[in-house]
Design brief:
The protein is 53% helix and 11% strand. It has a three-stranded antiparallel beta sheet with strand order 1-2-3. Helix 3 packs across helix 6, helix 4 packs across helix 6 and helix 5 crosses helix 6. The longest helix has 24 residues.
Amino acid sequence: MADSHPKNLDPRPKRRRDEENPYEIYTAGINTAHPRYFLAFTDDSKVKRWMEIDKALFDAFNEFELDDLSFFNEVDRHYEKSEVTEATLNKRAAKPQESVEEAVSQRMEVDKLHQAIAKLPEKQRRRLVLYYFGEFTYEQIADMEGCTKRAVKFSVDIALKNLKEIFQE
């Protein structure tokens, strides 16, 4: 094992490496008749060591580096790059979760609507609820109540007008 740094190293492309990978490979005289291949590592006592290796071993280490690089590229393309928090997940959700303030505000509006509907005359309230909440048509409601479609529509329209007035107060 040669502890001194090899001279005249060939330039190598800068590659990203796994931080857990303790080895580095180098070449010297690659364009000569007798190229040399080196493996560098840091030993247990934190001293950087160099050793000359044969071409087959160099090629194996080079292949490992290329495999690592391929894996890094796959991770970059397919995995999350930012910190995943509850807020970022909610933003990406098909139906984002509403904030507490929005939920309370919406609940207050619903309560106010129910109170306003309760103030309507019984016939208007019944027909409005069947039409909007029961999803019945004017014809179906008219058949249930034994009246005309026009009478049901008129009741619903008057109920909506009364609700608007209640909300404006």
